[in-house]
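SAMPLE LOG
Freezer: B-3
Tube label: C17
Construct: single chain, 455 aa
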Amino acid sequence: MPTPLISGTSAPLRGTIRVPGDKSISHRALILGGLAVGRTRIEGLLEGEDVLRTAAAMRAFGASVERLPGDGNAWVVDGVGIGGLAEPDDVIDCGNAGTGVRLLMGVVAGHPITAIFTGDASLRRRPMARVTAPLLQVGARFVGRNGGQSLPLAVVGAAEPMPISYRLPVPSAQVKSAVLLAGLGAPGVTTVIEPQPTRDHSERMLAHFGAQVAVEAVTGGGRAVALVGQPELRAADIVVPADPSSAAFPAVAALLLPGSEVTLPGVGVNPFRDGLFETLREMGADLVLANPREAGGEPVADLVVRGGGRLKGVTVPAERAPRMIDEYPILAVAAAFAQGRTVMHGLAELRVKESDRLSAVAQGLAVCGVAVTIEGDTLTVEGTGGAPPEGGAAIASRLDHRIAMSFLVLGMAARQPTRIDDGEPIQTSFPGFVPLMNGLGASIAPAADGEEEPS
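STRUCTURE (predicted):
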């Protein structure tokens, strides 16, 4: 059942909270732990619905995946090794997990097994052609809706997977990772060439588990990632950093509320994921990355955010998009409170996320009294000059966790409360979002039935 929520004007946010573990890293830790030989211990795993679907999938492939008893969220994975996957005896339901299903399709493509994947209504609408195209070259076959382009989808893995050299048409860490995972089962070297660098969690973690991975710069600013196939991956413990995409919501909320001071410890600051933090600092945000260090092969820092300073509009270049593609909805909310115009280029990828985020953000801001336009893949937000926007609207979350959280944040600092039609999708990436935010001083509560229909 939908869970409507309403977010009203908040007091200054104060306190220290740890946001959930990084979703991208959590998916990869479960998958590579299942493909390794031996026992991998994972600390800080995101226990959201998306990641739990990947855990269930790896069990279906024969790996043992269990949460250790106790108060911490430590998990252990007993892997089956490259080539040791069992053929699932039932359909694998990935729920809303776009990352999970695309990476798992890559795993299956490099093994002589067949698996059938499905997902929720949102995931069944998302395009899979960008993944199936290179995996066909590996030797896999696909049978499903829209000519094998949409879920539900049967993946018939290659009996003799081929190493390939594949140039990504558009930057995509998911496609890159799917090809590399398929390449684990192929003899020789599999290479992925990306026109712009994307998040490199797969490369880091493959090396952490013992694979030979080489990364070289290519002309034009891209990178070539080469993987030597058929390694014996060795179990390796993982510490999952706090997710920067989740940290974005309390961070922006604190910036919008004068007098706020929030500390978010252990946030991942991978240089291919820090585009939002760079942009917020350009806008004048009081945002400090304190105590930089490394955890589990990933750079982390404690994010300290203070509210009260006025944000100013900026232009965000298209080449920054791969470093912050999931953060544009909450950046657009921050831009609504800024002085001047914020122009965000290169957002075509937002149209094929859990929802069409480009239109969802524009429509939501418009009904909250913010002037916004879309031209091609560019989103322009006219800031309110530092004054709070009107708010007071009912927003359709479109089964999209980031749309839901973004407009709940807007409601904390708008003139009137903002309502979303369904907060349940938030569980996919940020379980405990509402109590954590309320613990800092927010005012988010269940919405009464019969209120205004969402726009």
